[in-house]
Amino acid sequence: MKKVAIIVVTVVAFIGLTYYLDKKTRVSSKVSAHGGSSSDKSVGMQAPEVHLKQLDDSEVSLSDYSGKVVLVNFWATWCAPCREEIPWLIEMQKKYADKGFTVLGLAMDEGGKSVVAPFVSKEQFLIEGGQKAAMDYPIVLGNDDIANRFGGLFGYPTSILISRNGKIIKRITGEISKQDMSREIESRL
Fold first, then answer.
1. CATH 3.40.30.10 fits 29-188, yes or no
2. Is 106 within 8 Å of 183 (Cβ atoms)?
3. Three-state secondary structure along 119-170?
4. Beta bridge partners of 170
5. What are the boundaries of each domain within the chain?
């Protein structure tokens, strides 16, 4: 009985510590969506040239999207705010793809393809109009080196909007604002 009590206390303490640390390190989406990008030193800089592995094992580079407005979205399958914004990203891809826009999802899961590929192929998300849809934008595998080339990550999701000429327009750590990002994308198309 004493061992069970110790295990319960340990688990509760661990959960409490995790919750506390999550709250302390999370960037508010309100702050980041409205003011986080203006103080980011990367805004206005040329986006890095990176080579990325797709889920089918082929390679793509960021320059392959030259001439398009690109929303680079660092995310993970286990990240609740990432999952919250995926339906918005699907909607943006559907709405703006024909106008020269794409979302580029960089999955940062440690398990790589073995975790990400089943998630992408099976998960359906409720989008506007009550429909279920899969992630229909390009998904590639990210890693720390690629994240560092974009200035590092301070949390998930992290989204970086890149102009048609390859310049970084905006960087948001935390969940994006669907309305603000849509306005920003529309102004660049």
1. yes
2. no
3. HHHHCCEEECCCEEECCCCCEEECCHHHHHHCCCCCCCCEEEEECCCCEEEE
4. 161
5. 29-188
Residue identified by tokens 């604002």 is: 177
Confidence of residue 33 (pLDDT cuts 50, 70, 90): very low
Question: What own/partner pairs with CB < 8 Å and gap ≥ 24 does 124-133 have?
Answer: 125/83, 125/86, 125/87, 125/90, 126/87, 127/87, 127/90, 127/91, 127/94, 128/87, 128/91, 133/87, 133/90, 133/94
Q: pLDDT-derived band of residue 143, with 50, 70 and 90 as boundaries? A: very high
What amino acid is encoded at 45 in this protein? M
pTM, entire model: 0.77
Region 160-177: mean pLDDT is 93
Of 79, 68, 83, 60, the residue nearest 169 (C-alpha): 68
Q: How far apart are CA 17 and CA 138, in angstroms?
A: 36
d(CA 106, CA 86): 12
DSSP state of 38: T
Among 16-30, 80-94, 129-143, 169-183, name the one with the lowest average pLDDT: 16-30
